User: Fold this.
Amino acid sequence: MGTRTLPHPWLRLLPLVIGAVIAVTAASVVLGQNAFAATVFSDDFEDGNADGWSKSGGDWSVVTDGSKALRQTKATTDNARQFAGSTSWTNYTVSASVKPLSYGSGGFVALLARSTGSTTFFRLALLPGNTVQLQAVNSGAVTVLGSASRSTATGTYYTLAIEANGSTIRGLVNGAQVASASSSLTATGRIGLQTAYSTASYDTVVVTTGTTTPPSPSASATSGPTPSASASPRPSPSASSSPPSTSWPTPTGQAPVNNGTIPVSGVFDGGMKRYCCIGDGGQGESQDPVFELAPGATIKNVILGAPAGDGIHCLGDCTIQNVWWEDVGEDAATFLGGSNYYVIGGGARHASDKVFQHNGPGTVHISGFYTEDIGKLYRACGNCTNSYQRHVVIDNVRVTGTDIVAGINTNWGDTARFTRITVLGDPSHSTIICDKYKGVPKGSEPTHIGSGADGVNCFYSTADITWQ
Assistant:
């Protein structure tokens, strides 16, 4: 199902609160630096509609394009737009999978941020001729903030992102910066999608707020201060999101993995085929992954058969959408580098140890996921070469036959936040929601030091957990 998450009203005051705290004490500067990103909006259109979006021009509809996507098909209009989100949003990053279908003369396909009206916003535009521009649009008047030569081919998905932080505006394509500039055009506003004399498909639109730059390994390897609740807000659950499915999908076909690991850049849509096989299905270290995602890549609509080796490796920021592991081998996915990683929908079963292994810095966001017969859903590495501070945000998941939902290292300032967790078939409530460890250098084993909510590292209340 498509998911949309809008912020709790107090989140709109967050920049003022943080600003006031920073002005008072130097310690709060550290808190601000340690704050992690929170997902405040997401839509993959899998629910078959564009509810929550407001249209202005063009012919828009949700279509099947491998997965569901929002498509604009009127090539003769000079201004087709869709807007969503809050006019009070300030500092945030919006990203989307964008596929140009056709370019007309003077046309473009774009992602918008900080829109204060239908003609005032920041825009990251794909133009014909392999050009990408970051623009400030003021009542329709365009100022080019930066430009770069990048592929903009039709029929190909690209991951576009705009980071708006104060007056600094950055544009990225497939995780690589194309432009960065300072502009005071607008400090707040909604997100948007736009085409001009062009047609395009849009998928996996995500908005995050908060600081995304991870601390250095040397700084985070000590106990240090941990983020406060005000510096690291928990996203408000979306009442419109449906619980994840517990039914395993049927493959549409077989896709033998005959030539080793499959590299992915941009967007890879597997069409719900079963990809198999790599490895021996055991817990042996250093097995090859089936897929290796380049920074900014998205993989969607894939079933991993057994054996699946080390599953999926994310080399940087990535999105894993509607991916199902029939039998987890070593790990389902490993997050190696980047700031934000998104697991949206899908499921995994038969993992004797963990499903998601977080080795790099940053935040893993898991939503709409289902597990059965596993050890841990998520584990922040407790003895990797680099001892980063790591964070996980888990919302709207169902687990059954699961020992631990998340394991973190409190001495490095890790945090785990949980909303709408449903534990199935566990009348004794034996599943541990948040497990705590003392992280150690590589070559040693982490020490278990406790479990449960504490308002410091493990954030959840009794209302966040449902036992069925």
User: Anything to note?
Assistant: DSSP finds three helices and 31 strands in the chain. The longest helix spans residues 14-24. The radius of gyration is 21 Å.
